[in-house]
Design a protein that fits this description.
By secondary structure, the protein is mainly alpha-helical. Helices cover 61% and strands 0% of the residues. Helix 3 crosses helix 10. The two termini are 16 Å apart. The chain binds iron/sulfur cluster. Iron/sulfur cluster (SF4) binds next to helix 11 and helix 14.
C-alpha cells in the first residue's frame, strides 16, 4: 500500500479489505496506464513552480489556471519578484481565474515564506528534506493543504504519495473502493491504504485522465471502460461480470 501517504496523513482506517483492493488497484493501474499512458499534465519538476501552479488550480478550469500561471510567471519571473510584489499587481495577472483575490494574497505570502525559509532557491532545500519535514513545511504555506502538498511531493519530489483529486475520488467511489458521498479529506484518508506501493504517480495520473475522458461526472462511458469488471457502478450499468466488492 501507499504507506508514506498513510504516515504523513495519519491514515490507514478503512472499512474495505486493503489486501483485496491493493491487488485490484494494481490491475486497474495496468489497464488505465495501457489505455491512457502517463501523460504530462503540465506539472513541474521544480517544486516551487509546482506550488504556485497548484495553488492557482483551485476552483478553476485547466485552461484558465494555465493561462493565469503563464501571466503570473511572465510578470514576476523570479520568486524574489513575487515575494516583493504588491498583492494588487498579482491580482491583475490572475483575475481571470477563480478565487483570485484570495489566491493573490496567498501567492505573495507563500513566496515570502519560501524565501524566508530557503532563500531565493528554496527548491534545493525542499529536495534535501525528509518527506515528513517537506509535508509539514508545505502545509504551513498559505493556501497549501494536504492534497496540494502531496501533489507537489508526487510531481516534483518523486515521493510515492497518492493525492486524491475529484476524478480519483469519483472513480474510486464508483468502483466501491470508498463509500459514496465522502468529504474530500475523508477520501484522502481512506484511499491511500488501498493503493499498491510504488504505483502512486502513474495510477493518479491515469485516473485523472480516465475521469476526464471516460468516467465523466454525469454520464460515465461504462460500455467502453477498460476497468468495468473492477467497478460496482459499471457492472450494474452494463451487466458485465467482474470481481465482487471486498
Ligand atoms: S465502469 Fe463506468 S463508472 Fe466504473 S470506472 Fe468505468 S466509466 Fe467509471
Amino acid at each position: 500500500m501507499s504507506a508514506l501517504t498513510g504516515e504523513l496523513l495519519g491514515c490507514g482506517r478503512t472499512s474495505r479489505r486493503p489486501s483485496v483492493w491493493v491487488m485490484r488497484f494494481a490491475s486497474v493501474a495496468d489497464r488505465l496506464v495501457a489505455a491512457h499512458g502517463v501523460p504530462a499534465l503540465g506539472n513541474f519538476r521544480d517544486p516551487v513552480r509546482e506550488i504556485f501552479y497548484i495553488l492557482l488550480s483551485a476552483k478553476t478550469t485547466d485552461n484558465q489556471y494555465r493561462r493565469t500561471f503563464q501571466a503570473l510567471t511572465a510578470r514576476f519571473p523570479s520568486l524574489s519578484d513575487l515575494a516583493r510584489a504588491e498583492v494588487a499587481d498579482i491580482l491583475s495577472c490572475i483575475a481571470s481565474g477563480g478565487l483570485a483575490n484570495k489566491k493573490a494574497s496567498q501567492i505573495q505570502r507563500a513566496a515570502a515564506a519560501l524565501i524566508a525559509a530557503g532563500g531565493p532557491k528554496p527548491g534545493r532545500r525542499l529536495r534535501k528534506m525528509a518527506p515528513a519535514e517537506v509535508f509539514a513545511f508545505l502545509t504551513r504555506l498559505p493556501g497549501v493543504g494536504p492534497k496540494s502538498a502531496l501533489c507537489v511531493m508526487m510531481y516534483s519530489l518523486d515521493a510515492d504519495v497518492f493525492p486524491v483529486d475529484v476524478n480519483v475520488q469519483r472513480i474510486a467511489a464508483r468502483m466501491g473502493a470508498i463509500p459514496q458521498g465522502l468529504k474530500h479529506y475523508q477520501a484522502q484518508q481512506q484511499l491511500p491504504p488501498l493503493i499498491p506501493a510504488g504505483r502512486s504517480r502513474e495510477l493518479h495520473i491515469a485516473m485523472v485522465v480516465h475521469g476526464r475522458t471516460t468516467c465523466l461526472p454525469r454520464k460515465p462511458r461504462c460500455a467502453s471502460c477498460g476497468i468495468v469488471e473492477f467497478c460496482r457502478y459499471g457492472r450494474r450499468a452494463t451487466g458485465a461480470q467482474g470481481e465482487r466488492d471486498g
